[in-house]
Fold this protein.
Amino acid sequence: MQLKNDRYLRALARQPVDCTPVWMMRQAGRYLPEYKATRAEAGDFMSLCKNADLACEVTLQPLRRYALDAAILFSDILTIPDAMGLGLYFEAGEGPKFERPIQSAADVDAIGIPDPEQELGYVMNAVRTIRKNLNGDVPLIGFSGSPWTLATYMIEGGSSKAFTKIKKMAFAEPAVLHRLLDKIADSVILYLNAQIAAGAQSVMVFDTWGGVLSPRDYQEFSLQYMHKIVDGLTREAEGRRVPVTLFTKNGGMWLEQIAATGCDAVGLDWTIDIADAKRRVGDKVALQGNMDPSMLYAPPARIEQEVAHILQGFGQGSGHVFNLGHGIHLDVPPEHAGVFVDAVHRLSKPYHQG
Ligand code: CP3
């Protein structure tokens, strides 16, 4: 079926568009009262992920409110470690936790590579249900975490500030960590290819914690494995390219290396000027980003001013997918997200003439 709105895919291919496409990281979530209601109906977050109809419902909720140019699968990056048997749970107010974190070489050797249509079949069912219900309105983005980012949660046992356990393994027993990262990379390749087979029209890899590494360690422990993933992905489906976006938060100093993996787009947080980013890599890849999500606390006029600045920074032509530089905060007024999305469409038109 022909997509009714393919601006997002066209911008990733750096083909002409009528205006700059936009979506928001974590666009389905707790800042929306309708999300909170559906989550309450499901019971808890993982039950919501595992119910294809409810996961589809929360995926579509932000699209009903805002003129977004893409939908993103409602799921989480921690589905893979959960499927590996680590026992994911969420402690109220504390974020994700694992009952059985990875602590030793024996733990690394004991975990298997999940079969995407078995242990992760609920994710593929959600993809199929969402694709059907989107009815060709906008493309569906699939996603996964990067091996390094997933390994931080698996080894630290949850969220972390200093990452001492995984860094201890990286520097004291590098071969063990490499075995783990390799298993995760293989799992991610199978998982994303299964999402593509189930109907995802684009995929994104979230490397939330690559930016806590030194340049050399980033290359060795994070980027190398994202490169392996890019090499292993299905790049065409339904007669169309399936673009892959790599996003390393705090990775602005490594844009050239990220672009050199062969990905289609690089995600930017807000700590880099998009004009600089375009100068450095804009002839190789598309760019996604890069407004500070906290800007959505500001009054509408300030949000519009910031959107205008970023559009001006990217300048004329295609190759930009507007987004927040990280996930939307849970206490922003929903109307401000609407101001943001409409401003991107309205203010970007002059950059796409001729
Ligand atoms: O963007 C979307 O709308 C799609 C859904 C999505 C979720 N998580 C839903 C979610 C995506 C793309 C993610 C990715 C994710 N999950 C990342 C990478 C992106 C980033 O934010 O850096 C990371 C690091 C995670 C791990 C994770 N899952 C965390 C840190 C949390 C927050 C815990 C909390 O209580 O705030 C989650 C849970 C989670 N994932 C929620 C949502 C909507 C909140 C759960 C809830 O409803 O209580």
